[in-house]
Write a structure and sequence with these properties.
This protein has about 230 residues and is of the alpha/beta class. It has helices spanning about 15-25, 35-45, 65-70, 85-95, 110-120, 160-175, 180-190, 195-210; strands at about 5-10, 30-35, 50-55, 75-80, 100-105, 135-140, 140-145, 150-155, 155, 180, 220-225, 230. Strands 2-1-3-4-5 form a 5-stranded parallel sheet, sandwiched between helices.
């Protein structure tokens, strides 16, 4: 019997929480639920889910703080949910490690589509050819290990989210190629769902920050103005 992927719903509104649980169970997940941020963090440490849906407004702490803390515990996919429609809220969520942001009320069909898109994304070896071996990519003092899903810079581990790792792996695998934002969306998310250049830009900015990179000089990730990005190592 194949184990079902695990999902954790962190949502204080009972009606919304039940709907999220139902949608994710129908999508094939083993679902656990929490009504507070603290409870959700405890369940993440205990159950190590593959997916977390996270309400921005929780009774004990806001979703931004929960997301910041959980990123020190897990590389699970995170979808942040909020009744706020301002772009700034969405970008802050992405900056602290969320993979996607949806506003309430949300469409169950769209939620399922976005979750399915994330789990269809090329993972580790899926970005290489079917007959190729996993790679260890080295550029200067930067090492990207495809098999272990680890990145080291000057011998020190660099903790990346799944999206950040796949972005770096794709760019480093093709150092001479310039990637448009649209192509990066298709290759890394395996879909067109982000639908906004800011999503790619925020994830690239997070990747640069963790690598100690400078957007102007672009030691590792260089901006090609008017086009997109390329690996700069």
């Amino acid at each position: 019997m194949v184990d079902r992927p695990g999902a954790l719903v962190i949502e204080d509104t009972g009606e919304v929480r039940r709907l999220l649980c139902e949608v994710l169970r129908m999508a094939g997940f083993d679902v656990t639920e929490a009504a507070t941020g603290a409870e959700g963090l405890d369940l993440i440490a205990e159950r190590h889910p593959d997916l977390v849906t996270l309400d921005l407004m929780l009774p004990d702490m806001d979703g931004i703080e929960v997301c910041r803390r959980l990123r020190g515990m897990t590389s699970a996919y995170v979808i942040m949910l909020s009744g706020r429609t301002e772009e700034a809220d969405r970008l802050v969520g992405l900056e602290v490690g969320a993979d996607d942001y949806m506003t309430k009320p949300f469409s169950p069909r769209e939620l399922r589509a976005r979750v399915a898109a994330m789990f269809r994304r090329p993972r580790r070896g899926d970005l290489r050819g079917s007959g190729d071996r996993p790679r260890i990519l080295t550029s200067g003092d930067l090492v990207v290990d495809e098999e272990s899903h680890e990145v080291r810079l000057a011998g020190r581990p660099v903790p990346l989210t799944r999206i950040e790792f796949d972005l770096l792996l794709l760019l480093a695998s093709n150092p001479r190629r310039v990637w448009t934002r649209e192509t990066l969306t298709r290759m890394v998310w395996h879909t067109d769902w982000p639908g906004n250049d800011h999503v790619i830009d925020v994830h690239v900015a997070n990747l640069r920050r963790k690598l100690g990179d400078d957007a102007r000089s672009g030691r590792w990730v260089r901006t090609v103005h008017g086009v997109g990005y390329r690996f700069g190592g």
